[in-house]
Design goal:
two-stranded antiparallel ribbon, about 160 residues, alpha+beta, 5-stranded antiparallel β-sheet, single chain, Thiol Ester Dehydrase, Chain A
Length: about 160
């Protein structure tokens, strides 16, 4: 069954999700013997867009290290809809959804060169202590700062 709606619901009092879109050419190392993107490369495409999203809102790997936290992926899901091909230029959108908890809910959409949706998916990342790997049950300060900026409208055009 193909998903036609967002993976995450937006609470009535939460700010709207926000995201970034990157453009990326499909490389030889991304494809299989048939010249289409191997299914195992999609997480890397998601990660490229998620990294740009993190730079926009202050959730970078450097910021995590400085705060003594990590945000490992606890869940990953992808729905493959259309193949991407060698040398095709695609767009990858990563959209962050509001969460009151110590977690990041991110949706992804990859569009092919014709603008059709080739893949959608999501990740759920849980905040942990960097030194012990233990889950944080309260949101870390870095996430609180990001959410305050988000509520203030800093991430919407």
């Amino acid at each position: 069954m193909r998903r036609k709606q967002p993976y995450f619901e937006t609470a009535p009092d939460a700010p709207a999700p926000f995201g970034v879109t990157i453009r990326r050419r499909i490389r030889f190392s991304d494809v299989d013997a048939l010249g289409i993107v191997w299914h195992g490369r999609y997480p890397a495409l998601f990660e490229e867009a998620q990294t740009e999203l993190g730079h926009r809102c202050g959730l970078t790997y450097e910021a995590y290290r400085n705060a003594g936290i990590a945000a490992p992926v606890a869940q990953f899901h992808a729905d493959y809809l259309l193949p991407l091909r060698l040398d095709e230029i695609c767009t990858v959108t990563a959209t962050l959804h509001w969460s009151e908890g110590a977690r990041l809910n991110t949706e992804y959409r990859i569009r092919n060169g014709a603008g059709k949706t080739a893949c959608t998916g999501y990740t759920i990342q849980l905040f942990t202590a960097l030194d012990t790997g233990e889950a944080l049950y309260c949101p870390p300060e870095l996430w609180d700062v990001c959410r305050a900026r988000w509520r203030a409208g800093e991430f919407h055009d």
